[in-house]
User: Fold this.
Amino acid sequence: MTQATKNNVCTRRIAGCLGVLLSLQPAAGLAALSSQEIIAEESSRTQLLAQRRGGGGGSRGGGSRSSGSRSSSRSGGSRSSGRTGFSSYSGSGSRSSGSRSSSRQSNQGSRQTNRSSRQSDVRSNSSSRQSNRQGTRDTRQTSRNDAVNSRQDGRQGTRDTRQTNRNDAINSRQDGRTDRTDIRQSNRTKRTDIRNDTYRKAINNWDRYGKGWYSGSGWTNNRPWTYGWYGRSYWNNWGWYPGQAAAWGLAGLATFSVINSLVNSAQSQQVSYIVVPSSDYSLYYPSITATGDVVTFEADDGYETVRYSANCRQGTLNGGTPRDANEAQLLNAACQVAFGQ
Assistant:
């Protein structure tokens, strides 16, 4: 049996099967038809291959085989087409299969595009959310930093204000103490001045001492004791003088000419005291009396009248070394009035 004959037989069988299927219910027929499409496609491929092989054999073996093949092909084709219409149905199935394949590819492309779009949206949304989170974190951190700085500035401002208030309070208290001290000192000075004025007015009663060696204009010659021997050569050689004078910053003691001038002025005005130069003492010169090298006298120290005793050769006051420059000047003034030139 030739290959063409085998193909015709197979085709008839397939056509018979299709007839049976068409007589079945539509749903069953369609299900069978779907399974038979594959058989039809395989049959078409087999027939096409047989035709190619048959044509080649006719060329080698002679024209009768080639003609027979074409005749069989036409006959088989005619019968197949006439009986079942398989060729037309098979071609329709091929076109349907290509359409579905194109549709699947199109759907796959759409799905891939949708996946890419969704993936892009996911990345975009993730990046946006991350950016928003970072922006929110930055904003919160900035707010925290601002709040911390604000609180720190507030604390520092409060500290500065408290310190300023403390300093102001301290300065105010110190100013108050200084004012009170100044007032007290002023009051003491006023009371001292009042006492001094009272003492001097009371003691400056010229008649209290009466007539004496100090009364006349030649008082230096009327002194009833030995005089004229005291001067700088004595006080400059007192044992304590060089060192203490340097410590007190004392450049020197008043000279006889200065002391005599003060006594002459007070006597002419009938005033019984002189203010000792560079000291706080006032010397009551009419109170001076001398015995040997010792002189006694009264002086006002600014608070009260005090009686003193001095040794003009030894340079002592009340039996001791003068305590300060004021007492040294008082000692010198009394010795000058008693024993000076």
In short: Residues 86-203 form the longest helix (118 residues). Residues 27-33, 55-90 have pLDDT under 50 and may be disordered. The chain is about 70% helix and 10% strand.
